[in-house]
Amino acid sequence: MSGTYSQAASTAASYYDSDDADRFYAGIWGGEDIHIGLYERSDEPIATASRRTVDALIELIGTPLDSKSTNDLRVVDFGSGYGGAARRLCSSPGIRVDAVNISAVENARHRLLNEEARLSERITVHDASFEAVPLADGCADVIWSQDAILHSGDRRTVMKEAARLLKPGGVMVMTDPMATDGVNADSLTAILDRIHLADLGSPERYRSWGNEAGLKRTDWNDQTKMLIEHYSRVRIELRRRRQDLESSISPDYLERMDAGLGHWVEGGQSGRLSWGLMRFIKPLN
Q1: Which of 138, 153, 236, 256 could be stapled to 8 by a disulfide with Cβ–Cβ 3.0 to 4.6 Å?
Q2: 96 contacts 74 by C-beta, under 8 angstroms
Q3: How far is residue 177's CA from residue 94's CA, in Å, rounded to a whole number?
Q4: 159 pairs with which residues across the strands?
């Protein structure tokens, strides 16, 4: 692992590279989309709801996706996980994806799934941090990120990287678990301790960071109820499958995950957490 990674990034990589984390996320989410889902029913499979979020973000892109008819369009995915979104994007011809992700274990699974889908030539997986993306200025039509930027110790820099990579007229679409605007980090200690972070972003902070970087936020679709629903569903699934999961995942990890999911649910229900879909545009001038 590179010594140039920030402490927060290195901590995130160590966590996601662990066997317990890899087996849990691959098993519960199915190894495709390890992000918060958009649910239409409380009994809906997690994978179905997670894929719906991907489709909602694709729709949110709008221009330049519409204007280019998906011909020769380059997407840079910040925190690509197992690559479910990248492969979904590549179901449209002409789209190429640069998948930037810090976890070597996730990236290995991502590459394997790309090979199985015959998409290796269209998806390039970069073992790198989205705090310092190894790509040229103005190379991207779209920046994509799902529930990943929270792991950065310097989210302002991440937004600057997005702005650097985007062509004029390009867009960024993202989701991220956040604090509600005005909520102090001291009230989120249980969650922050669990993910080893000092604070979270918030809708207003992302708008401000984007503005500082030269990006204008055009959309903020608050879907905090889905954060509550998703972490509740994952916790139910963990408990339902606990005995089976313990054959490959340590009981200590599962116990800590159960408690952590409970903190996310409580934080959302108490109004201290926020989640939703955002869109930014890099102006032409």
Answers
A1: 153
A2: yes
A3: 31
A4: none
Contact 24, 253 (CB under 8 A): yes
Whether residue 279 contacts residue 242, with contact meaning beta carbons closer than 8 Å, is answered with no
The CA-atom distances, in angstroms, between 124 and each of 35, 98, 100, 120, 202 are 20, 5, 9, 7, 30
Number of Cβ within a 10 Å radius of residue 225: 14
Q: Quick check: 280 and 257 in contact, CB under 8 A? A: no
CA–CA separation, 140 and 187 (whole Å): 38
Q: How far is CA 93 from CA 69, 115, 122, 163, in A?
A: 9, 17, 10, 25
The span from the CA of 148 to the CA of 178, in Å, is 11
DSSP H helical ranges for 143-223: 155-165, 189-195, 203-213
Percent of the chain with pLDDT over 90: 79
> Is the pLDDT reported for residue 282 higher than 60?
yes
Q: Please say whether the beta carbons of 102 and 21 come within 8 A.
A: no
**Which among 12, 5, 14, 35 has a CA at the least distance from the CA of 134?**
5
Q: Contact 125/151 with Cβ under 8 angstroms?
A: no
Give per-residue pLDDT as tens, 115-168: 999 999 999 999 999 999 999 999 999 999 999 999 998 999 999 999 999 999
Q: Is 190 left (phi over 0), alpha (psi -120 to 50) or beta?
A: alpha
DSSP label at residue 66 = H
8 Å CB contact between 224 and 275: yes
- Are 275 and 169 spatial neighbours (Cβ–Cβ below 8 Å)? no
